């Protein structure tokens, strides 16, 4: 069996990202920070990919920003597979990572592996993301042994919202900071290729970034990580609540959509849509003929 190599075609791979780790101070490198965004469907995935983002995460945040749920906890594996398939169809360059939803990797290791395999085989994901540090060591090892790349996630982990008592910044005490350092090192030791650091002090994120050999991807963790990720809907102004402190809004697409729909309604109600130019016409040979009389 022959294998066609795809090196040099611009496709982002796990080895590519590992090479984008921030170099040690004083070393010479063409280091470029890693850019990541979420996407949940074909059109937005395609637009994000064509804009040059390195990693597209099909996040379980879809439960909140797409499905209107109050947290990520009720998102199912079938929903995640459905949205990952849609995203995969729109992506050519970026690395596609799928969130494993709550409950899909929290019990039996064998079933957790089977669930992860589904994301690769059925949905086309190139990696999966799991939340948690030291307690995920065995799971991450099992997945990487099965040649499924794993992105870790420590700090504010949304699937732990009930245990944490809400969406709170983590690692603000000496004990909490030390635990997050251990968590990050455990994720690295287990074989993960990158770690999302969410909702932690900038200083701690910088310390973790220096202490591990794999890239760190920050969200609410300051500018010293190896890359950054945001929820696309926060970036575009497509959410209905105040965005978190770290979510910079680059556009107000929500207002653009609302204005377009208001104009559409006005045009329909005013009779200007559709216009004659936007209507289909009968062939000239049929124009002027007597209307068909229908008898009952």
Largest sheet: 8 strands, parallel, barrel
Q: Output the strand order for the largest sheet.
A: 1-2-3-4-5-6-7-8
Shape: elongated
In angstroms, what separates the terminal alpha carbons?
70 Å
Tell me the structural class.
alpha/beta
> Based on DSSP secondary structure assignment, what is the total number of beta strands?
8
Percent helix among the residues?
25-40%
Number of helices: 11
Return Rg in Å. Answer: 24 Å
The helix/strand order is HEHEHHEHEHEHHEHEEHH
How much is the average pLDDT? 94
- Binned strand content: 5-15%
The parts where pLDDT drops under 50 for at least 5 residues are: none
How is the secondary structure organized here?
Blueprint (H helix, E strand, L loop, with lengths): L13 H5 L15 E5 L3 H9 L4 E4 L3 H4 L11 H14 L4 E5 L9 H13 L5 E3 L7 H9 L4 E6 L5 H4 L9 H17 L3 E5 L3 H10 L4 E4 L7 E4 L1 H5 L16 H18 L26
Parallel strand pairs: 1-2, 1-8, 2-3, 3-4, 4-5, 5-6, 6-7, 7-8
Helix pairs in contact: 2-4, 5-6, 6-8, 8-9
Condensed summary:
By secondary structure, the protein is α/β, with parallel strands linked by helices. Helix content is 36%, strand content 12%.
């Amino acid at each position: 069996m022959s294998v066609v190599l795809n090196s040099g075609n611009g496709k982002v791979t796990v080895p590519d990202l590992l090479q984008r780790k921030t170099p040690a101070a004083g070393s010479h490198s063409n280091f470029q920070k890693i850019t990541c965004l979420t996407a949940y469907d074909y059109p937005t995935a395609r637009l994000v990919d064509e804009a040059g983002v390195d990693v597209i995460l099909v996040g379980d945040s879809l439960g909140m920003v797409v499905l209107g749920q109050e947290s990520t906890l009720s998102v199912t594996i079938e929903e995640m597979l459905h949205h990952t398939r849609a995203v995969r169809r729109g992506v050519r360059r970026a690395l596609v990572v799928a969130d494993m939803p709550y409950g899909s990797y929290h019990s039996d290791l064998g079933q957790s592996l089977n669930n992860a395999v589904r994301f690769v085989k059925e949905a086309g994901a190139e990696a999966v993301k799991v939340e948690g540090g030291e307690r995920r060591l065995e799971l991450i090892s099992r997945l990487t042994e099965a040649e499924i790349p794993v992105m870790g996630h420590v700090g504010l982990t949304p699937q732990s919202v009930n245990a944490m008592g809400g969406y709170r910044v983590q690692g603000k005490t000496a004990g909490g900071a030390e635990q997050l350092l251990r968590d990050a090192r455990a994720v690295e030791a287990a074989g993960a290729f990158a770690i999302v650091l969410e909702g932690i002090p900038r200083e701690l994120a910088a310390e973790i970034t220096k202490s591990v050999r794999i890239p760190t991807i920050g969200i609410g963790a300051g500018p010293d990580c190896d890359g950054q990720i945001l929820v696309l809907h926060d970036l575009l102004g497509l959410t209905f609540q105040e965005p978190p402190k770290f979510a910079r809004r680059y556009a107000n697409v929500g207002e653009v959509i609302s204005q377009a729909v208001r104009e559409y309604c006005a045009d329909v109600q005013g009779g200007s849509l559709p216009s004659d130019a936007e209507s289909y016409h009968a062939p000239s040979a049929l124009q002027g003929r007597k209307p068909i009389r229908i008898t009952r």
